[in-house]
Amino acid sequence: MKPKKVFLFDTTLRDGAQAEGVSFSLADKIKITHLLDDIGIHVIEGGWPGANPKDTEFFKIMQGRKLRKAILQAFGSTRKASNVAEKDANLNALIDARTQRVNIFCKSWDFHVTEILGVSLEQNLEMIYDSIQYLKKHVPRVSLGMEHAFDGFKNNPAYVYKILEAAIQAGADAVGLADTNGGCMPDEIGRIFGELHDKYEILRGIHIHQDTGLAIAGTIKAIENGATAIAGTINGIGERCGMVDFCALIPNLKLKLGIDCVPDEAMKRLKEVSNFVAEACGMDVPEWSPYVGENAFYHKGGVHVQAVTKNPRAYNHVDPDLVGNKTVISVSELAGKANIIHVASQIGIDVDKNDPRVAKLLSYIKERESFGYHYENAETSKYVLFKQMLEDAEKKIKIDGFSTAMTKGDGLGDVFGDDSLSSTEATVFIRIDGKKERVVVSDSKGPLMALAKAVFIGVKKAYPELGRLVAKDIRLRVLEKTKEGKIGKLRIFLQTICEKTGEKLSTIGVANDISTAFLSALLDAIEYRLMITESRPDASEKVKTAAA
What we know:
Blueprint: E1 7-10, H1 26-38, E2 43-47, H2 53-62, E3 71-77, H3 89-96, E4 101-107, H4 110-117, H5 121-136, E5 141-147, H6 149-155, H7 157-170, E6 174-179, H8 186-199, E7 203-208, H9 215-224, E8 229-232, H10 246-256, H11 264-267, H12 270-280, E9 298-299, H13 303-310, E10 328-329, H14 333-347, H15 356-371, H16 379-390, E11 397-408, E12 421-432, E13 435-443, H17 447-462, E14 469-478, E15 490-498, E16 504-511, H18 514-535, H19 537-547
Parallel strand pairs: 1-2, 1-8, 2-3, 3-4, 4-5, 5-6, 6-7, 7-8, 9-10
Antiparallel strand pairs: 11-12, 12-13, 14-15, 15-16
């Protein structure tokens, strides 16, 4: 029987961080936590305090922050066999995290207990009991995750029962089963979970890895057999092949099975959340990802396109708007033009499909994306591009050349600014409305900030009404490396905020060096602000009057 509601336990910041190549910054962990809270995730597993300095610091910072609805959970293990619970560093780090919930894992496959952990089956039960009992004295809710539970049950079901009994006697609030190596078939998971759940109401959680490609199927089988606390990650990131992908599971539960898990409005932000987490991981969302991928609602020419242009329901299994995505019709010339016209209308540009500028823009975008541009997360750059190519908006600023020279302090420092740099001198040869300027500045925050300062000084001479733009986030991605292993082509996503309006601007730059990529992204932000100011002349006049 399917429950009416399930609770989502997100482990992107813990299990997801174990994925190859993923290393969230502390700032990323905090941003992702608030984003998960915004979309209605119930429990957020923030990491393993005590395992590394970053996770320990994260929990310290989060003690001073409030989440709207989500509960923050710390993760750890049962005590070491050689320790008593009161003196176990891992357990005390969990207590020091001061979260409302703690989840500890135990070995539940007898093979793992004796051969990997190297203790007796009875010792393992004592470790489980002692750890839960000690934590319950200090933490409101303590849950136990049974690692390799399904393999353990198949090998020695009586021992799995003993673990559940020990957890109950120690005072655990909930228990979850994990298919840790992802090797069980969905029917096995459903059968075993159901058999145990019938005997133990405390069994609520399911945590399945993706090694057979069946993590979501297994999770749904567990839900049908009583699971209500569902573990997963954004984009399915995790160790080895990853685990349950919430970006696919959430809409499957809500739209296909009628099981409540997040608000409807929150589900519309799934693609946004998917893109943000992917960028924080230094990767792209796979184009073929269900629901949130670029190709999830993508249609080629022929019969499909003909049908979808009449009614999207013909080949879209759900309305893409429900998950924050969109129908994409491409490949054929007509379909490509239709897509350009659709985006143009969203921006406020009225253009005919036969206008030669439409075909020119379509071709240009394909070239740019082939080079490395990706406009999905760079709405401001996309706006500027459409305005310039479909309305012939004049490009007001051009960089003819630039140079930077760094004066070392105690150390070399880095390109984003460092205390060890005493100063950076930047020279920019800039052309504004055709008028050439040479601007030289010094700055202590590194080459990029020095270049930005020089550009703003030049632009302000011609456009004093331009509001100050503050760089809030710079994300760098290496797209290519040379044969020698050196950095080749790279991409920068730049987020700036206009201090005057509070508007967030997202721009992109791609080049073979970081400074050129940065300047390209920065100029899009400036061009956008000038376009907006120009389209509202009254705003410009108010600024000039105030300055006078």
